[in-house]
């Protein structure tokens, strides 16, 4: 058993390394396309740029299911090796890209590297016993940190490569990524031993049978939240920080990396927690945390101007004089609150500022109960950048734990179909990464609120939690239907 685990650990290290590189390549366009547009190397529109950011995520998500099936049938070594080597080709060809559609096509092709997750999950699962599945898959999932590596290092590499040739220096970056894929692919071919899950004498139709199980789609919804929206916000947070908090691109990139990196690294801990406490209990923690944190993040940075306490005349009279501090009506004086100095930035909690604005003129005759000065109240909520960032990092960490918990479920319920089920769940999650930024853009246009993206997260968290609760109630009733009658009988006696 120890020898088997030792071999499994070696495979896990190589699997995790390969997946980290795959994820770094998969998110390459987030940095490279932004650089090309910002430096006017290509004059692509906002719509064209959005599609170039999303197309690798789309192809890498759609192809997860067929690659998962292939891994179940033939094992991880041939599939992963072929994927790494073949996806290096479009990266090399990006050196020659000189038009939008060529770049688009090559982006779609190298985006296939995103299927490395489905391949690696099935291959890792094949090597480990049930009691090790959560930890092993959690460690493998740490490869998500590859997104942070690209966000952090790629801008510096681009600046270095473009120092002497600003127009074409960028072309060497995809070459470097392609070379890295070739090296990892050769390592897989030479040093990895193949292994398949048991009971593989099945037709493709039989392999696809688990997809008719509603449980697969429920897991897919969980993964849409914890992985798909993680990928979406990995791209969306950069413009969020720049537009809402007026940060520089460099600071925005660092803060976005602070969201991506912990979420990827913590996944291994999520696997440990899933093994120790059970995946279902961990998912409860994750969903409740996502609901609470997204609820806090929904509060926008805003200023609300609303009517405040005004001053009315107690009797009919003539305005004798008025100033910044008082109004004199006949012989009566009314104190006026002057407008305070409003700071540009306020504290963490909302602050209110109230004052009164005079509506009458000197020698004007006013009637009883007429408004002499209207009250104005300004409520200012700063949604402080550091508080916002801490909440974002926390929700990223909980999503990282949730990713491991979702995939802990799969080998427990579908031990011989990890590739196909994991591929389908990964496909749904990956589509979240593709759809998310596009949907966030439409929500922003419709509502005018940047925090509309967090409202969407809140709704998905609430739906996932409700669905899980309903399933648990149904399972409890099916396992012990007499408990329901007993509980109702006890409650009736108390009433």
Automatic annotation (TrEMBL):
GO annotation (BP), single: nitrate assimilation
Gene3D superfamilies, A to Z: MFS general substrate transporter like domains
GO cellular component, one term: membrane
GO molecular function: nitrate transmembrane transporter activity
Pfam family, one: MFS_1
Annotated membrane topology: Multi-pass membrane protein
InterPro entries, A to Z: MFS, MFS_dom, MFS_trans_sf, NO3_transporter
Name the UniProt record assigns to this protein: NarK/NasA family nitrate transporter
Lineage: Bacteria, Pseudomonadati, Bacteroidota, Flavobacteriia, Flavobacteriales
